[in-house]
Design brief:
The chain is an alpha+beta fold. It has four helices and four strands; from the N terminus they run E-H-E-H-E-H-H-E. Strand 1, helix 1 and strand 2 form a beta-alpha-beta unit.
């Protein structure tokens, strides 16, 4: 079934999710946690609506251009603290220093009205990251972002 972007099934506030306790096995937050004014409340709500043993899948930016309504950037230590009521079962930084440099170059080119090169530059940088990044599970200081899978502890 295809998701209908024009007619969402539900519109709500992630700080106060409109669901009963312990109803979901998985909650996904891709490129959204940085946009919440009070992300600790959102994480608490996700914890509430997840079943015991359920998974919270997160992808957040770190060294990434500001894009409008961002409140936060997350470090590995900050994520561990934010997810203290979860067991972290997976943590990596899929994009590394070449992506960080590439995004800076793309921003510069856009300001020079040369944004047509964006896809090419990003593609090259992503490939360089794949070739040279040794261990994605050891977060680097030049990470573009982080992916985390956290499990709600069983009672």
């Amino acid at each position: 079934q295809r998701f209908n972007e024009r007619n969402p099934d539900l519109i709500g506030d992630a700080h106060q999710l409109p669901f009963k306790d312990s109803v979901f096995q998985v909650v996904i937050s891709k490129d959204t946690l940085e946009h919440f004014a009070e992300p600790w409340k959102v994480v608490r709500e996700v914890h509430r609506v997840l079943k015991d043993g359920g998974y919270f899948v997160i992808w957040v930016p770190f060294m990434h251009p500001f894009h409008g309504d961002d409140f936060y950037r997350y470090t590995p230590l900050g994520l561990q603290h934010l997810l203290k009521d979860f067991e972290i079962v997976f943590f990596d930084s899929p994009r590394w220093v070449f992506t960080v440099i590439g995004l800076a170059v793309v921003e510069l080119l856009k300001r020079m009205r040369l944004g047509i090169f964006e896809r090419i530059i990003k593609g090259i940088c992503y490939k360089l990251d794949e070739w040279f990044m040794q261990d994605k599970s050891r977060p680097g200081s030049f990470a573009n972002g982080y992916r985390v899978v956290a499990r709600k502890r069983r009672r």
